[in-house]
Structures are given as C-alpha cells and as structure tokens.
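User: structure tokens for this one?
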Amino acid sequence: MRKITEIVRREIERLPKASVFSLDDIATPEIKSTNYYAFTKALTYLEKNKEIVRIRKGLYFKSYISAISDLQINMPTQNNLIAYYSKKFNNGFYLSGYSLYNDMRLTEQVAQTITMTINERLPKNFVEFGLYFAETKHSITQENKYYLQILDCIEHIDDIPEKCENEVIENLLNYHFGKLSQKDIDELVFISKSYNAKTRIILSRLLKKIGYDDSTLELIKTLSLSRQLSLQKLSNYE
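Assistant:
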C-alpha cells in the first residue's frame, strides 16, 4: 500500500499546481499493473492528507499553497475546469452560451457562466462553478467552430441580453458577415441545415442583406412549403 501511494503521489507531483485530473491522467503502466483497489485506496489516503481534493467520482484537484495568502487552495476555479476539459475534448468543442454573445460583440453584458458545446457524451454540469455542457448539432472540427458559433448566436437570438433581434442582426452583419467569403457562406449554409427552421430563416435574411441571393434561395428551399410561402408573402409585402 505504501509503495503504490508513493507512486501515485509522484505522478500527481508531476502535474502543474491547481491541475484538475482524472484517474487516466496519472495511470502510468506501472500503476495500471497494480491492483485497482490499491490504486483507489492510495487516492483516498492522499485526499485525507489534503494533498488532493475529489471533485466528483473519478475527478480530482491538486491542492496548492497560494503565493498571495499562504493558504491552501482546495477547490478548482472555473478556469481550472475549462483548462482540463479543453485538453480532454481537444478540437471537439467550442465555447457557446452567454460568454459567446459577449465575445462575438453582440452584447456588452459579461457572463458569469461558460458553456462548452462538445462532440462527446455530455458530462454532468458543474453548476457550482458556472460551467455547463451542451450537445453539438453538427460534428465539430477546428475549421468549422466559427460557423457553429455564428449559428448558435442566431438560434438563440432571443436569449442575447440587452439587445433586440434587429440590433443583434446589425451587429452580426457589422462584425462577422462582412468578412465572410463565398466559401465561408457555402459552409455556413451547409451546416445550418442541422439547425432548426427559425435559424435558417434568420440566416437567409442576413445573407439577403449582403447580396448572397443564390445562398438565400438554397436556404429557403430547405424549409417546408408553408414557410416558403409565408416568406414569399412577406418579401412581396416589403
């Protein structure tokens, strides 16, 4: 027991301070060759010794002494958790939700919560740390994250604080759509087919405003006939 505890302690000491880590992060071949019960007992001992803190089943935090207050820090911050999951999900995630609206310059309100939209099975939310997870509507790659973020903002346009729909559309046009190429527009239209009809309708309005008539028509064709007729009547009225 003492030997495995020292081996586990050694692996944890190699991690940067304030690290969030799972069993897999410290399970070297040497540790894997030992009895799993002994491994978990070693972690329990280190937890009782206040060297680590169990955040939830299978997830731990490496305690450290604050350089400012000389106090031991036994709880992770929101940023510690984001750093862990950013590494875990690699390119298969992007930030969304209220923090995204501010980053995209669609509102001045600064969010206290962070949402990570991911490809994988959703972990349980860290409500106490203001960290939430959402399921993606389209497979995430490094190349399409920006398009997905734009579409998320459009889908949740009514949730964007301090701004009405027309103000958000104006900001999207000014800060984002003006710099998109035809290739970008084509990819945006393709991915939008994974979103609901309302998102595609608003996107068609945005594209029409900047002169992408063919892309607008392509989007309208993805809608139900009744929605197409409603849009046609609205267009004739305008």
